[in-house]
Amino acid sequence: TQVTEKLEEAVMIWIKQIKQVLVESEQMRREADDIGPSAELEYWKSRMSSFNSLLDEIKSSRVKKIISILQAARSKTLKQWKELDGNITIAANEAKDNVRYLYTLDKFFGPLAKASPVTMMEQVPSLMNTVCMIYCTSPYYNTSECMTSLLLKITNQMINTCKTYLCEG
Protein backbone atom coordinates (compact mmCIF):
# COMPACT_ATOMS: atom_id res chain seq x y z
CA THR A 1 0.00 0.00 0.00
CA GLN A 2 2.93 2.38 0.59
CA VAL A 3 4.09 1.81 -2.98
CA THR A 4 0.54 2.38 -4.24
CA GLU A 5 0.30 5.61 -2.25
CA LYS A 6 3.60 6.89 -3.67
CA LEU A 7 2.53 6.00 -7.20
CA GLU A 8 -0.85 7.70 -6.66
CA GLU A 9 0.98 10.83 -5.47
CA ALA A 10 3.10 10.80 -8.63
CA VAL A 11 0.03 10.35 -10.83
CA MET A 12 -1.78 13.18 -9.02
CA ILE A 13 1.18 15.47 -9.73
CA TRP A 14 1.04 14.45 -13.41
CA ILE A 15 -2.71 15.06 -13.46
CA LYS A 16 -2.22 18.54 -12.03
CA GLN A 17 0.50 19.32 -14.60
CA ILE A 18 -1.54 17.98 -17.53
CA LYS A 19 -4.59 19.96 -16.41
CA GLN A 20 -2.43 23.08 -16.38
CA VAL A 21 -1.25 22.39 -19.94
CA LEU A 22 -4.85 21.89 -21.09
CA VAL A 23 -6.05 25.07 -19.34
CA GLU A 24 -3.22 27.11 -20.89
CA SER A 25 -3.97 25.68 -24.34
CA GLU A 26 -7.58 26.82 -24.10
CA GLN A 27 -6.79 30.40 -23.11
CA MET A 28 -7.26 33.26 -25.55
CA ARG A 29 -4.25 33.93 -27.72
CA ARG A 30 -2.76 37.38 -27.62
CA GLU A 31 -1.47 38.31 -31.04
CA ALA A 32 -0.37 41.45 -32.79
CA ASP A 33 -3.11 43.23 -34.71
CA ASP A 34 -1.31 42.95 -38.04
CA ILE A 35 -0.18 39.32 -37.84
CA GLY A 36 -0.41 37.28 -41.06
CA PRO A 37 -1.83 33.81 -41.79
CA SER A 38 1.50 31.99 -41.60
CA ALA A 39 1.39 32.67 -37.84
CA GLU A 40 -1.75 30.53 -37.65
CA LEU A 41 0.09 27.58 -39.14
CA GLU A 42 3.05 28.15 -36.81
CA TYR A 43 0.72 28.28 -33.79
CA TRP A 44 -0.86 24.93 -34.64
CA LYS A 45 2.51 23.34 -35.46
CA SER A 46 3.79 24.40 -32.04
CA ARG A 47 0.65 23.12 -30.36
CA MET A 48 0.90 19.81 -32.24
CA SER A 49 4.51 19.41 -31.14
CA SER A 50 3.63 20.10 -27.49
CA PHE A 51 0.71 17.69 -27.37
CA ASN A 52 2.58 14.98 -29.28
CA SER A 53 5.44 15.21 -26.78
CA LEU A 54 2.96 14.93 -23.94
CA LEU A 55 1.32 11.92 -25.61
CA ASP A 56 4.71 10.26 -26.09
CA GLU A 57 5.39 10.70 -22.38
CA ILE A 58 1.97 9.35 -21.38
CA LYS A 59 2.47 6.32 -23.66
CA SER A 60 5.99 5.62 -22.36
CA SER A 61 6.68 2.24 -20.78
CA ARG A 62 7.47 3.85 -17.41
CA VAL A 63 4.07 5.55 -17.22
CA LYS A 64 2.29 2.45 -18.54
CA LYS A 65 3.88 0.33 -15.79
CA ILE A 66 2.77 2.75 -13.09
CA ILE A 67 -0.76 2.88 -14.48
CA SER A 68 -0.98 -0.92 -14.68
CA ILE A 69 0.18 -1.22 -11.05
CA LEU A 70 -2.51 1.26 -10.02
CA GLN A 71 -5.09 -0.65 -12.07
CA ALA A 72 -4.19 -3.82 -10.21
CA ALA A 73 -4.55 -1.90 -6.94
CA ARG A 74 -7.91 -0.50 -8.10
CA SER A 75 -6.76 3.06 -7.53
CA LYS A 76 -9.37 5.82 -7.63
CA THR A 77 -6.92 8.22 -9.34
CA LEU A 78 -7.25 6.29 -12.61
CA LYS A 79 -10.67 7.75 -13.44
CA GLN A 80 -9.14 11.26 -13.62
CA TRP A 81 -6.10 9.92 -15.43
CA LYS A 82 -8.16 8.22 -18.16
CA GLU A 83 -10.23 11.37 -18.69
CA LEU A 84 -7.10 13.50 -19.06
CA ASP A 85 -5.47 10.95 -21.34
CA GLY A 86 -8.52 11.20 -23.59
CA ASN A 87 -8.46 15.02 -23.50
CA ILE A 88 -4.77 15.10 -24.46
CA THR A 89 -5.44 12.68 -27.32
CA ILE A 90 -8.27 14.89 -28.59
CA ALA A 91 -6.10 18.03 -28.36
CA ALA A 92 -3.23 16.30 -30.20
CA ASN A 93 -5.58 15.07 -32.93
CA GLU A 94 -7.08 18.54 -33.31
CA ALA A 95 -3.66 20.17 -33.66
CA LYS A 96 -2.46 17.53 -36.13
CA ASP A 97 -5.60 17.86 -38.22
CA ASN A 98 -5.46 21.67 -38.21
CA VAL A 99 -1.81 21.64 -39.30
CA ARG A 100 -2.69 19.29 -42.15
CA TYR A 101 -5.48 21.57 -43.36
CA LEU A 102 -3.54 24.80 -42.89
CA TYR A 103 -0.65 23.38 -44.94
CA THR A 104 -3.01 23.43 -47.93
CA LEU A 105 -3.00 27.24 -47.57
CA ASP A 106 0.77 27.54 -47.15
CA LYS A 107 1.35 27.86 -50.91
CA PHE A 108 -0.69 31.10 -50.85
CA PHE A 109 1.11 32.75 -47.94
CA GLY A 110 4.34 33.58 -49.81
CA PRO A 111 2.68 35.15 -52.86
CA LEU A 112 0.22 36.95 -50.58
CA ALA A 113 3.12 38.60 -48.77
CA LYS A 114 5.29 39.45 -51.79
CA ALA A 115 2.84 40.14 -54.62
CA SER A 116 1.63 43.38 -56.06
CA PRO A 117 -2.04 44.10 -55.35
CA VAL A 118 -2.94 43.03 -58.90
CA THR A 119 -1.19 39.64 -58.73
CA MET A 120 -2.40 39.19 -55.16
CA MET A 121 -6.00 39.55 -56.36
CA GLU A 122 -5.39 36.76 -58.89
CA GLN A 123 -4.65 34.45 -55.94
CA VAL A 124 -7.80 35.34 -53.96
CA PRO A 125 -10.32 33.03 -55.69
CA SER A 126 -8.11 29.94 -55.23
CA LEU A 127 -7.29 31.00 -51.68
CA MET A 128 -10.97 31.42 -50.79
CA ASN A 129 -11.84 28.06 -52.39
CA THR A 130 -9.22 26.42 -50.20
CA VAL A 131 -10.52 28.20 -47.09
CA CYS A 132 -14.03 27.03 -48.03
CA MET A 133 -12.76 23.45 -48.43
CA ILE A 134 -11.20 23.62 -44.95
CA TYR A 135 -14.44 24.97 -43.49
CA CYS A 136 -16.50 22.24 -45.15
CA THR A 137 -14.26 19.26 -44.40
CA SER A 138 -12.22 19.91 -41.25
CA PRO A 139 -13.73 18.31 -38.15
CA TYR A 140 -12.00 20.82 -35.85
CA TYR A 141 -11.17 23.98 -37.78
CA ASN A 142 -14.68 24.68 -39.05
CA THR A 143 -15.74 26.86 -36.13
CA SER A 144 -16.55 30.53 -36.48
CA GLU A 145 -13.67 31.36 -34.10
CA CYS A 146 -11.09 29.55 -36.21
CA MET A 147 -12.42 30.85 -39.51
CA THR A 148 -12.66 34.42 -38.22
CA SER A 149 -9.10 34.26 -36.93
CA LEU A 150 -7.81 32.85 -40.21
CA LEU A 151 -9.69 35.33 -42.41
CA LEU A 152 -8.57 38.21 -40.22
CA LYS A 153 -4.94 37.13 -40.64
CA ILE A 154 -5.36 36.75 -44.40
CA THR A 155 -6.87 40.24 -44.53
CA ASN A 156 -4.02 41.62 -42.39
CA GLN A 157 -1.51 40.15 -44.84
CA MET A 158 -3.32 41.66 -47.80
CA ILE A 159 -3.38 45.07 -46.12
CA ASN A 160 0.32 44.86 -45.21
CA THR A 161 1.18 43.86 -48.79
CA CYS A 162 -0.79 46.82 -50.16
CA LYS A 163 0.86 49.22 -47.68
CA THR A 164 4.29 47.99 -48.71
CA TYR A 165 3.37 48.35 -52.38
CA LEU A 166 2.14 51.92 -51.86
CA CYS A 167 5.24 52.93 -49.89
CA GLU A 168 7.57 51.52 -52.56
CA GLY A 169 5.68 53.07 -55.48
TrEMBL record:
GO cellular component: axonemal dynein complex
Any single GO BP term: microtubule-based movement
Domain Dynein heavy chain tail: 5-167
Spans traversing the lipid bilayer: none
InterPro entries in alphabetical order: DHC, Dynein_heavy_tail
Highest taxon listed in the record's lineage: Eukaryota
GO molecular function: dynein intermediate chain binding; dynein light intermediate chain binding
A Pfam family hit: DHC_N1
PANTHER family: CYTOPLASMIC DYNEIN 1 HEAVY CHAIN 1, MALE FERTILITY FACTOR KL5
Protein name, per record: DYH5 protein
